[in-house]
Amino acid sequence: MSKIETSNSSTVRGAASPHVLPALPYAENALDPVITAKTMSFHYGKHHKGYVDNLNKLIAGTEYADLSLEKIITSTVGQPEKTAIFNNAAQTWNHTFYWNSMRAKGGGEPPAALKQKIEASFASVDACKKELASAAVSQFGSGWAWLILEGGKLKVVKTANADAPLKSIKPLLAIDVWEHAYYLDYQNRRADYVNAVLDKLINWEFALQNAS
Ligand code: MN
Questions:
Q1: What is the 44 CA–ligand 1 centroid distance (Å)?
Q2: What's the CA-to-centroid distance between 6 and ligand 1, angstroms?
Q3: Cα of 120 to ligand 1 centre, how many Å?
């Protein structure tokens, strides 16, 4: 996307920004009632959009303005003075990955090729789901639970705040456990939200694509 150079750029900066909020891979009410349209409208339309808008404002006119999202994330991680850019870039990436980690009528049996990989790394699909749920529920405060591929093995990890397991690791699935992901629908019952996502929405096909 081309950038617009102006002398008084503050009003047109949004139009010139290189990062766009990706369309949801389904309708806002597609995951209802597990995740309601109301939650989706805030989570996608306010939170995810907010991360993209903030990122564009933060990087305008900086060395990061022309970098890909992944490059911004890997070049700002662990640098205290770049925390705001890292947080908004990582949250932009994480949310797009999270929307794709779910689908209407998801859950159920993983495709055979993925099931084989899951069974080679965990005792069973159920054991894998239990470990994911346990990571998601036990993450203290805001963060994410992930199914990842590392060194040919599937593993479950959790990260705090905006952190994502991107360094030499392939994420396969993400579950958002920030309160904004579930509070309107489940209030304090994070475990109910996590188990409903795993049983009814999790997108094993997306995990398989990422593992291939
Ligand atoms: Mn979120």
A1: 8
A2: 34
A3: 31
Residue-wise pLDDT for 160-208, tens only, equals 999 988 876 899 999 999 999 999 999 999 999 999 999 999 999 999 9
Q: Find the 176 Cα to ligand 1 centroid distance in Å.
A: 6
Same domain assignment for residues 96 and 118: no
Q: By CB neighbour count within 10 A (0-12 exposed, 13-18 middle, 19+ buried), where does 145 fall? A: buried
Residue that is last in its domain, among 71, 100, 129:
100
Kindly give the distance from the C-alpha atom of residue 162 to the centroid of ligand 1, in angstroms, as a whole number. Answer: 9
- Asked whether residue 30 is domain-assigned, the answer is no
Does some domain include residue 20? no
Q: 101 CA distance to ligand 1 centroid (A)?
A: 13
Residues 84, 132: one domain? no
Q: Which domain holds residue 134?
A: 112-211
Q: How many separate domains does the chain show?
A: 2
Give the pTM: 0.90
Choosing from 100, 123, 154, the residue where a domain stops is 100
Is 173 in contact with 209 (CB distance < 8 Å)?
no
Determine the distance separating the centroid of ligand 1 and the alpha carbon of 87, expressed in angstroms.
Answer: 12
